[in-house]
Amino acid sequence: MTVNPRHHLAAASAGAISANVVPHLAHGVTGKAFPTPFADPPGVGDSSPVLNVVWAGMNAGAVAAVVFAQRRRVPTPAFAISYAVGAAVAALGLRSYFGRVRQTPMTARTHPTTSARRPG
């Protein structure tokens, strides 16, 4: 069975989406707020723990759909390597992004115009 670039892309995408499941599920089940695309502003403001669990579930469903579509290729080393590379690259990217977002004071994350003002 030959593997074409679309199969590598599908496997890497599944790995990348899998990496996104972890922080949202972890924050959701521990009862902590965390940014999701449904926050205000999207991806920056915090969402409720319940919404984080829902977002993690949506991501897990997307991974399941891609893996199911690629089920004949899942046992191949090419799929596993592409999946792992996608997961690692996404994990590093998510770590960098959320590291910056989480270090920004909450008022600056939710209200960009108030970050320049000083209280008092």
The arrangement of helices and strands along the chain is HEEHHH
The helix content, as a percent range, equals 55-70%
| Proportion of beta-strand residues | under 5%
Estimate the global geometry from the Cα principal axes.
elongated
Whole-number count of domains: 1
- Helical region count? 4
Class from secondary-structure proportions? mainly alpha
Number of strands: 2
Please summarize the sheet with the most strands. 2 strands, antiparallel
Radius of gyration in whole Å, from Cα? 17 Å
Question: Uncertain spans, ≥5 residues at pLDDT below 50?
Answer: 111-118
Mean pLDDT: 85
Spatial strand arrangement across the major sheet: 1-2
Distance between the termini: 69 Å
Note down, in words, how this protein is organized.
With 120 residues, the protein is mostly helical. The chain has one domain. Helices cover 65% and strands 3% of the residues. The protein is built from four helices and two strands; from the N terminus they run H-E-E-H-H-H. The chain has helices at residues 5-29, 49-69, 77-103, 106-110; strands at residues 34-35, 46-47. The protein has a two-stranded antiparallel sheet with strand order 1-2. The longest helix has 27 residues, at 77-103. The chain is elongated, with a radius of gyration of 17 Å. The termini are far apart. The relative contact order is 0.19. Residues 111-118 have low confidence and may be disordered.
